[in-house]
């Protein structure tokens, strides 16, 4: 604590007061008193020094705070979205060199069949069985406290939805529509499918799914009708566009539907929600969640033309896989022309490929990719795992994991970009490579030509029943399929999910040896095995993951709920499964 300096008046006696000076020495007598002018000057000097030191401290602190921001900005400029504005910076794994790596390792790959992986023993992790809980009652009356003896609760109105997107986005919309209808105590009109310029499929609900089965499976839970009754339509002059149309916010909550949508439904007796993709939150009460489960795994059965041909394709794949006990691998390959264009990735086509992709992007998505705020970085897309794997990369990965050249592979895909060129190396590594086009006759496929959703339904069913499913790009198809496989196979997705950021690094290393590559691929397979049995922790209604990708534990109870589930574990008429297929009936065993 600093000592205070007291000044004595003139003529005062020497009382031994100690005063401080600049060199720290002591003085026997006090200093003479300062004049008023000198006191003011000294006070001003002290204030100036204090202000200067305070300013210097604030400036230094500001610099200290700015340093991390400058460092982070530098990283963004080097590897982030703004790097395209300051020139290209090389990032490891950003260049497609897989064909060069394959040429270098080709002899080792094709000759390596000594450590073949048996399909029956690919998956080692098992989900610990739990005693299934009974299904919650999904009827509205039970949750309003009404009994069977009380007056029947009249429906609040008719719900019309328009499902958009491809096969599985439409499937999501249908399941959500059933859940919303149950939530609002509404009568659901068979969902309409919106025609889209990308998928170019004019199929109706009845072309894809069995309408009668859909209606009967949901009886007692949600009432389904094919059309809005005449007494309702006459009020709107039979003009669908005159019916009140609501634009519901994405991932709308139960409270939103009860507070915003329900009053309008009661007022008008019928409402139309369009579009209806992702219009219901994942976190909903258990009795509403169960409606999603019933719709997805019981009510949605593919139509007879689709399920009949799908069964034939599965039987033919089993027959061609006789050397591996009837088990096969399915690969969802997203290397179609439009997917390559949408991903904004570059492969080995140079300027010609870039120009071709630019034309496709402009044709399909207009100016979406030419906006000023859109910086396209193919190199960073590849490093971040956003580029579709090529057939060659899929083949190298699977051979590295231990699948040998006797493995039968079903390729679920649309029209592959530069098909002959890109499929050749995969065919070289896996001679037993099949597609729906190679398994079915031209006459069998003729009714499906030009209908992308019906074609996807064939791929979905054959992939569903494979021993190993390989996803390469993400999207609704693999997410729904992984969930369906978890539902059928005791909680295990039995799916290979590539670690693409890791894979692109290995496929750019010209010094990599086959033994090293194999070791890394086996670790990747082991990680897919571990993640395949993961079940999200669900407490009350706080689910954050998709019920369609992770259907357990909520959907597990419907095996015991369904009257078609026998004590032996056989499945009949569940989801896409065909009732007469022995293989499908025992899929869960």
TrEMBL record:
Belongs to the glycosyltransferase GT106 family. The keyword Transferase applies. Residues 10-24 have a biased composition (Low complexity). Keywords: Carbohydrate metabolism, Fucose metabolism, Glycosyltransferase, Membrane, Transferase, Transmembrane, Transmembrane helix. The chain crosses the membrane at residues 63-91. Residues 1-38 are annotated as: Disordered. It comes from the Eukaryota. Signal peptide: none annotated. This is O-fucosyltransferase family protein.
